[in-house]
Amino acid sequence: MPRLCSNLVFTLRTMLLKDLIDPLPPEFSEDLLQKINDALSESKKTILVLDDDPSGTQTVFDVPILTDLSQQAIEAALDEAPPILFLLTNSRSLIPEETQKLHQRLASILKEYDEDLIIISRSDSTLRDHFPLEIETLKEGLDLEDAPTLFIPFFEAEGRLTIDDHHYVVEGEEATPAHLTPFAEDNAFPFSHSYLPDYFAEKLGKSVETQSLSLAQLRSGNVAAELAALPPGSICIVNAVSRKDLDVLSLALHQSERRFLIRSAASFVQSLAGIPSRPPLESWQMQDLEPNPQGGLIVVGSHASKTSAQLAHLLEHAPEVLPLELHVSELLSHPEETLPPLSHKLNQAIASGQNVVLYTSRERLDTLDGSSDLALSQTVSRSLVSLVEGLTSRPSFIIAKGGITSSDIATEALGIKRAMVLGQILPGVPVWTMGNETRHPGLVYVIFPGNVGADSALTQAYQKLKD
Length: 467
Prior knowledge:
Layout: E1 3-4, E2 15-16, H1 17-21, H2 33-43, E3 46-51, E4 63-66, H3 71-79, E5 84-88, H4 96-110, E6 117-122, H5 133-141, E7 149-152, E8 160-163, E9 166-171, E10 174-177, H6 196-204, E11 210-213, H7 215-218, H8 224-228, E12 235-238, H9 243-255, E13 261-264, H10 266-273, E14 297-300, H11 305-317, E15 322-326, H12 328-333, H13 335-351, E16 356-360, H14 370-389, E17 398-401, H15 403-413, E18 418-426, E19 429-433, E20 444-448, H16 457-466
Parallel strand pairs: 3-5, 3-6, 4-5, 6-13, 7-12, 7-13, 11-12, 14-16, 14-17, 15-16, 17-20
Antiparallel strand pairs: 1-11, 2-10, 4-18, 8-9, 9-10, 18-19, 19-20
């Protein structure tokens, strides 16, 4: 039977990772990848990933992603019956009312294909998102109120681990409860609990009966009985420390006749699709179609503390990169005087072969509530979009840093309607190839999540692309 969570008291402090990992039972030893592949193929189903920002493709390759969410585009893509398809909702940048309307509309389109789909609502591994709104909206729109929800925030590449129903963020040799990290102070999506039953109660505004799949159960190698016993409509926490933990669950899901909705970070997408891990892309795999003497462009919109550290590292260790700062306070007070001269400098530099980093000023202009903060982010993002859209030369590469930034630049500035995920330039950092409908067909587009990588990661990605 699934283990019913109780409100136990655990230490709320940073711990040594080994002290968390060492007492755990050993992983299930069998490699289940081929069995998962075979089961997905035999089912003839499509794993449909509703991705709340573009970073969800950070564990896959050779997979299509659709940014055009019109009914015609979605139906055409699903009629091809791909084993996996991403729909970029970018809903993390929306206010609750907007994301609810979007998911209602998507559910009405997907309902026709419902029996042929396994739906994953992909979101943030650090618990910053529209939960439970998006899952509840999908359940209602797809008539899946009785389907259990599997909650899987584990993300291997960046050390987001779930142990004993607590969610941790790993840095080096230390594991910190997620609510004690800067992620919990996100203006739009703050939270106060790492113990997930308490996190659910905080988000739902009431205590809920929560189920759990423990690591001991997963590492036994078979959780079919546990999945079958989940109460209708329940929320089930999936503990995980490794890809193999997820693979046990993935095979059981493919073999089950029961319907589930899945709320997960990116690692589970890879597991359920049976996609193997492969090394980061080499420089030659990301070269432009033809020799391009123009400069490359890095756009930094995210205000995550990790992003600011990575930007500082880039500016210090790549002095040949021209820094162009978009001053947000000046933008808000005098947009007509701020953007034109910046656009001129940007175009001039790219055309002359100089690599450029275009970044927003680092001071935070906090607002009174999350919705206002999202509106401010949208204003800044639209300005970055206008600058990239106004490029008169084809850059030799484009890196966009931050979820809202990378999504808006992809869809609005570059005109991407459908792309292919080429792979990752660094662990957790996806690379898309732009389609023929875009302003720069065939150009690689690097989507660099705001909360991924060491301080040197942005510099490393730039070094791979600059030559």
